[in-house]
Automatic annotation (TrEMBL):
PANTHER family: ARABINANASE_LEVANSUCRASE_INVERTASE (PTHR35279:SF1), PTHR35279. Transmembrane segments: none annotated. It comes from Mikania micrantha (bitter vine). The lineage of its organism: Eukaryota, Viridiplantae, Streptophyta, Embryophyta, Tracheophyta. Residues 81-105 have a biased composition (Polar residues). This is Glycosyl hydrolase family 32 N-terminal domain-containing protein.
Amino acid sequence: MELIATTKTVNHLRFPATPRSRISIILPFKRSNLLDVHPKITISSNPRNNPLKNPIFLTQCSTNPTISDDRDNVIKDEDSTVSPDSNPDIQNPQKPTSDQENKASNCSVSRGLVLDLGSEGFWDSFEVGSPVVKRFLSDEEERWYMWYGGRSGGNLDPGSIGLAVSSNGIHWERGKGVVQSNSDVGVVLKSSDDWWAFDTNGVMPGEIVIMSSSKTRASSAVYWLYYTGFSNEKIEYLNNSLEFSLENPENYGKNGEFRTICRSLPGLAMSQDGRHWARIEGDHHSGSLFDLGSEGEWDSMFISSPQVVLHSSGDLRMYYHSFDSEKGHFAIGLARSRDGMRWMKLGKIMGGGRVGDFDEYGVMNPCVVKNKKDGGYLMVYEGVDVDGRRSIGLALSSNGLKEWHRVEGGPVLKPGVEKGCWDDRWVGSPYLVHMKGEKDEWRLYYKGVGQNGHSGIGMAVSEGNDVKNFHRWTGFHL
């Protein structure tokens, strides 16, 4: 892969008091197959001010990842040593005891649940969702990172993005508050304090793309976080046009306490340790990567859940969803970029399903991966039916562009059916991880919600390499 991002490690990342830096970020790039315009990219953190002289340099990456073009979510770790100031209990969580395993396998109402709400006083004690999961492998160990959205309580609390770590992708170590060191876990990105920004009312992760190559030192890898930023502007049209009460896709309260949907746009932040992030200003005046569609276009209402796939060198693709007011359903669209910062929209690629189907009222929260076996693309998505109930569906494409075909037979994962099950209301926000090995199975991480509005993050496993059949995780088989 020719696309690489390199940085000079000069000093630790210096963050100003406000979340959105007002200092220029200078990132030197090797430009052979990137956008051949300038030898380096200079991004002003505030488009209204002239950049200052002192640049911010990203800190050394503690995970040392390299990534291949196929984005299979398995990242080979060339150097898995832990830095001297690391906390070994967090970086290398102990394997769960047999008591933990038995408890998980015997509790039918919590089947599949891998990350519940945080304890009282934690940043994620009220809501969790939108998991983005990466697996890091080395000869000595395996490590898992999960970036996810959460809130601590009440409709006045904007959403934040946090990080949890694991040794097996099932039992996770979480943090109570904001991360402090490069081995900490907890909140890694909060909403902006800048009044003019697009993300003043909460942030939600969409995808992590790791820009590096086997041709460069692993320590120079850069994490690119594509995320949804919510503003304070309310969207009243949706609840007035649908036949069911619609809560904000990822932000709502317990016990039927719904939030009005807020306008949202896609954003970008960068990091070298996955914990400390610097926002990157897009071309839009609010700092987002691009704007809503014009009046009458399918994505003129909001843009949410930007999920980016590195198709090949100089070809990045963003899948996102909005609400097509003319058709009356949620839909997924596609944008394309050569450098990951400037995007060109290609239009809507999927809309509502057939009458009576689980996704009749539309599709949301796509997750797209490339299937190495046949070179095609898989998309798991959240389908909305006429009652607002949500399930997870699957679509296939030979090229990942506009030729997407739904897999027949209904959703690949439905809400739980057991009485009192933690996810018996709806399931959505899917994320796929390919588990290479003897079984060659897939893991499907997702957000689940119970009838009382209690949310959690679950995991389902495929039957071998068959991505059309998933069952909820029920425990280790010893």
